[in-house]
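for the writeup, i need someone to sanity check this before i put it in the appendix. the sequnce is what the collaborator sent (i think, or maybe the updated version? ugh). structure was predicted straight from it, no edits. if anything looks off just tell me and ill rerun, i have time this weekend
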Amino acid sequence: MKLAVFDFDSTLMDGETIDFLAEPLGLKDKVASITEMAMRGELDFFESLIMRVKLLEGLEEKKVNEICHNLPYMPGAEETIKALKKEGYKVLVFSGGFRNATSYAREVLGFDADFANVLHSKNGILTGLVGGDMMFSHSKGDMIKRIQAILGIDKQNTLVVGDGANDLSMFEYADKKIAFCAKDVLKKAADYIIDEKDLTKVLMYI
């Protein structure tokens, strides 16, 4: 058995979920600037997540799901996941974003499981609070290590794909590290760099 782990925002999906969610509140540019700094590694991921989610307070959960069910997926996403599964990979998604987006994407794109954060709501309205699996800059590395232990998969049979600073912690646990349309901080740590928005290029390295 082999393991492939993808980031979601700006990797499997073309954009940042939280930026899309901020748009109806007129806060897209403000949230996007914080996201950009976090992905470049200039802001602590946890602090940036708390800061950005707080700005979503008051958004209807129904609107959140509507947006998350209409996100643009990266070209080649579905084909790449299908091809990896055919080659014996378990395909997972780790996201510092939200399950509203990743769990729906799992149904569409066909990956095996998703680990992401949960937007807290009361009476169908976001409270500006968040919790979940991927709250910290080290969360993805911590999760991949535990999943490798559960499945009995070693570093040699692990491939990871991401674009931002919070994907760095995964790289320690994979022998195939791919920076996809990535920030410089991740490119420096990668074995392979893909600068074209075409996920099928990942298949060159399996």
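The mean pLDDT is 96. The two ends are 13 Å apart (CA to CA).
thx in advance!!
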